[in-house]
Amino acid sequence: MNMETVPWELIQKCVVVLISVSLFWKIIKYMCGLLKVEKEPVTVLVTGAAGQIGYALAPMIARGVMLGPDQPVILHLLDIEPASESLKGVKMELVDAAFPLLKGVVATTDVVEACKDVNVAVMLGGFPRKEGMERKDVMSKNVSIYKAQASALEQHAAEDCKVLVVANPANTNALILKEYAPSIPEKNITCLTRLDHNRALGQISERLSVHVGDVKNVIIWGNHSSTQYPDVNHATVTTNSGNKSVRAAVNDDNWLNNEFISIIQQRGAAIIKARKLSSALSAASAACDHVHDWLLGTPKGTWVSMGVYCDGSYGIQPGLIYSFPVTCENGQWKIVQGLEIDKVSREKMENTAQELIEEKELAKSCLN
Ligand SMILES: NC(=O)C1=CN([C@@H]2O[C@H](COP(=O)(O)OP(=O)(O)OC[C@H]3O[C@@H](n4cnc5c(N)ncnc54)[C@H](O)[C@@H]3O)[C@@H](O)[C@H]2O)C=CC1
Ligand SMILES: O=C([O-])CC(=O)C(=O)O
Description:
The chain is of the alpha/beta class. The protein folds into 2 domains: 42-191, Rossmann fold (3-Layer(aba) Sandwich); 194-367, Lactate dehydrogenase/glycoside hydrolase, family 4, C-terminal (L-2-Hydroxyisocaproate Dehydrogenase, Chain A, domain 2, Alpha-Beta Complex). The protein has helices at 8-35, 52-62, 84-96, 111-115, 139-156, 170-180, 194-208, 246-250, 253-265, 267-275, 281-296, 343-367; strands at residues 42-47, 73-78, 102-108, 120-123, 162-165, 189-191, 215-216, 219-221, 229-231, 236-239, 242-245, 304-309, 321-329, 332-335. A hairpin with a 7-residue loop joins strand 8 (219-221) and strand 9. The longest helix is centred in the N-terminal third of the chain and has 28 residues, at 8-35. The mean pLDDT is 94. 1,4-dihydronicotinamide adenine dinucleotide binds next to helix 2. One of its GO terms (molecular function) is L-malate dehydrogenase (NAD+) activity. NAD(+) binds at residues 48-54, 79, 142, 166-168.
């Protein structure tokens, strides 16, 4: 090879360009690293944190299941004195799990310390029902807890704190909390019916042998109790040939109108019968889904069920905490309007509203 014909000048230029590009790229990556600002932590209160749902829920929150994989969290765990050792153990395990998103854990039996500056409050604290009881049978013990904790939240939580009541009777506990914390906006106080919603999705997916993610827009109307109305009239399933209504896909109205409804209404009792304990992992997961969708939004074209303060939508008496189909955007829920309601559905929606009206009266009498 004749060395004189080698284009040394060109090779030299190429090497310089390559070195410059790689240097430039390194600088950009370094700058991005410097600019990567970690989000401020969100403080999440879990009451009844030493209980069985608490034990399933705390690690889910610490892993980002509730608020997203890039959202640091601080956990405030509240329980009562007899459970304080167990609560301490939960905190020890959270430390041992070394969750990257978990920026602090406060485990306390002091309600004021627990409520201080919380952005999200998940209220599990209370007495669960046992086999053979209805959820309203735990009314007197639990509503007095919600009355007391309402004022602590009102006085010490962050402005715009979002509250999810899980403890039963969930709708009525949430209503009591709302009434005794008048300065918390009513749109910030909700109760969990997402577990019932997810149970309905699960049953339809099993029946049709499709993935649960392909079923959407079931509705839980009313109370988180055996009078709730799981409604599939607007639900759809995604199939190979496009979207189909659940009624058409199941093609068995008798099953949908009877057995399906009763399975969902009685699912909590069936879990208690099988486990001798009430639902915990599914309740924790549903609580994460509820808060996640509320704060981060529901996917386009999809609604979820939430127990929310009723404004009279669908002719339901205003002033109850009633489960409706909702969509969420920018941290706000909105009741889905304009769905056609047939006569059978109307009756079931009224029936569960009636139970909530009675529970409200019973709760008031327990507090007098
Ligand atoms: N809405 C829903 O979909 C569901 C609701 N639930 C309800 O959630 C609640 C919690 O269930 P579990 O964790 O299984 O019960 P659990 O009995 O295992 O835990 C409840 C915890 O609350 C604590 N507690 C009692 N009084 C308290 C107070 N004043 N302040 C703070 N903590 C207090 C207890 O010491 C206990 O550690 C129950 O009311 C249960 O019926 C359960 C499943 C689903
Ligand atoms: O049934 C219970 O008492 C617990 C609960 O609310 C549920 O699993 O839906």
